[in-house]
Amino acid sequence: MVELYLIPAGFPDNLDRDRPAVIIDIFRASTSIAAALHSNAEAVYVAGSMEDADALKSKLGNVVLAGERGGLKIEGYDLGNSPREMTPESVSGRTVIFNSTNGTKLLRRFADFRHAAVGSFVCLSALISYLEECHTDPVLCCAGQLGRFSTEDTLAAGYIISRLGRADDQLDDASLFARRMVDMAGDSWRNWAKTSSHGRLLASLGLADDLDFCLTIDKYDFVPVSDGDKIICNR
After folding, report:
1. Rounded distance, CA 200 to CA 211, Å?
2. Given 75, 110, 128, 211, which is the most exposed site by the fewest CB atoms within 10 A?
């Protein structure tokens, strides 16, 4: 059965680590990680806190520090959490340490899963192909916003679940809800995402262009996957 956890607090610690997992943080960690890898970053290491990021920097040496708090670039970091900043000039051939408010904390909880992928609209079709090759029903988890339900992450989960093509009796209630939410949104799904509380926050910070970037389907033909404590490109 496909399982979906709409907030990180709902995710249990006793799930089978051999099941494929999808971690979703649409605005903006999932998308920024994909953009960094597309721009030929060597790898993206995810940090769960400022202290984790500092420890990784000490261990890895010459890196790009990227991250945000409250939507804004962390003071002293090279980049924020905008996919538009993840350019070849900024990250090509380099290791990125990524530290965000919501997504990176959740990603670290999946480091010991055999198959863990970063879910996004920009890599949607590649993600579906990856999950189909696993031949096991996935578990999906939304990062949400500050631990609370988020419209954009749930819509993304619904799109993933719709593309998987499972029957209703192969979905748990949260998965069925997310798929029905996508059906209900119809052609207005992007507007639903943009007018979410997180979308409104980012727009108020002058980051409306990030929203359009994050809501572009199939911009890339690969899926970011977890390899221990780092994220790499899987084609």
Report:
1. 10
2. 75
The count of residues in the chain is 235
Positions in the chain whose pLDDT score sits under 70: none
Side chain identity at 65, as an amino acid letter? L
Q: What is the pLDDT of residues 134-174, one digit of tens each?
A: 989 999 999 998 889 999 999 999 999 999 999 999 999 99
Q: Is 52 helix (H, G, I), strand (E, B) or coil?
A: helix
| Cα–Cα distance measured from residue 4 to residue 164, given in angstroms and rounded to the nearest whole number | 13
Within the chain, strands assigned E span 3-5, 20-24, 43-46, 63-69, 72-73, 95-99, 115-119, 139-142, 223-227, 230-234
Q: 3-state DSSP helix/strand/coil percent for the chain, to nearest 5?
A: 45, 20, 35
CA atoms within 13 A on the CB side of 14: 0
Q: Which residues pair with 115 in a beta bridge?
A: 20
- Tens of pLDDT, residue by residue over 48-64, are 889 999 999 999 988 99
Q: Which CATH architecture has domain 3-234?
A: Alpha-Beta Complex (3.90)
Q: Residue 115: what pLDDT?
A: 93
Phi–psi pair at 218, nearest 5 degrees: 60, 45
Beta bridge partners of residue 96, listed in sequence order? 44, 64
Nearest to 83 by CA among 26, 23, 142, 33: 33
SS3 156: helix
Instruction: Report the alpha-carbon distance of residue 235 to residue 221 in Å, rounded.
Output: 7
* Structure tokens that stand for 40 in this block: 């030929």
- Which residue is associated with the tokens 């995402």? 193
